[in-house]
Amino acid sequence: MEKSEMNIVARHLTKAPVDLEAIFSELGIEYNALWMDGEASGSITRNGDSFTVVVNALESTNRQRFTAAHELAHYLLHRDLMGDGKKMHRHIDMLYGSGEQSGDVVFKRLHEIEANRIAAQIVMPKKLVEQEHATTTDTAALANKFGVSKAAMEIRLKTLGLRG
């Protein structure tokens, strides 16, 4: 993860909901919401030095946002596992999968956990969640403000020690 990339991400963590498409644009990552077969929620593909993130257009907007942030986290943390860029490498995330894939790109369960943790930090930045939580403790209202599911917000609030 390069410092300049983290600076780009950090600049966008000041307003809810976080503008993920602006982050992708500044990082030079192509981003699309497309119909995906099976139980795929999203994917990140490397073709040379270029990356493309796709989320499943059939899923809810909130799910698409979290998936997009999850794939962004794979880009920031794990793109070195996607090979040397001389051929196409693709990782597909399944909503109800084991998190591991066969083939020449293997993200282990640990990589998926890391990507989920970073995704939560991106779409629900600590400082913003704490500020908004000071004005309302209504989980549904907070989830709506950040463009995430109520379940994702509940987990984030617990992680930040704002819920028991």
Task: Identify the strand order in the major beta sheet.
Answer: 1-3-2-4
The CATH architecture of the largest domain is: Orthogonal Bundle
Sheet/helix structural class: alpha+beta
The number of helical elements comes to: 7
Query: Over all CA atoms, what is the radius of gyration?
Result: 16 Å
Sheet-strand content, in percent, reads: 15-25%
Instruction: State the shape.
Output: globular
CATH class of the largest domain: Mainly Alpha
Largest sheet: 4 strands, mixed
- Mean pLDDT across the residues is 89
**Can you tell me the residue ranges where pLDDT is under 50 for at least 5 consecutive residues?**
98-105
Brief characterization of the structure:
With 164 residues, the chain is an alpha+beta fold. The protein is built from 7 helices and 4 strands. Strands 1-3-2-4 form a 4-stranded mixed sheet.
What does this structure look like?
This protein has a 4-stranded mixed β-sheet. It folds into 2 domains: 121 residues, Arc Repressor Mutant, subunit A (Orthogonal Bundle), CATH 1.10.10.2910; 40 residues. The chain is α+β, with helices and mostly antiparallel strands and 164 residues long. It contains 7 helices and 4 strands. Strand 2 and strand 3 form a beta hairpin. About 5% of the residues have low confidence.
Give the SSE layout.
Elements (H helix, E strand, L loop, with lengths): L2 H9 L8 H8 L2 E5 L5 E8 L2 E7 L4 H18 L10 E6 L14 H15 L2 H10 L3 H8 L3 H10 L5
Parallel strand pairs: 1-3
Antiparallel strand pairs: 2-3, 2-4
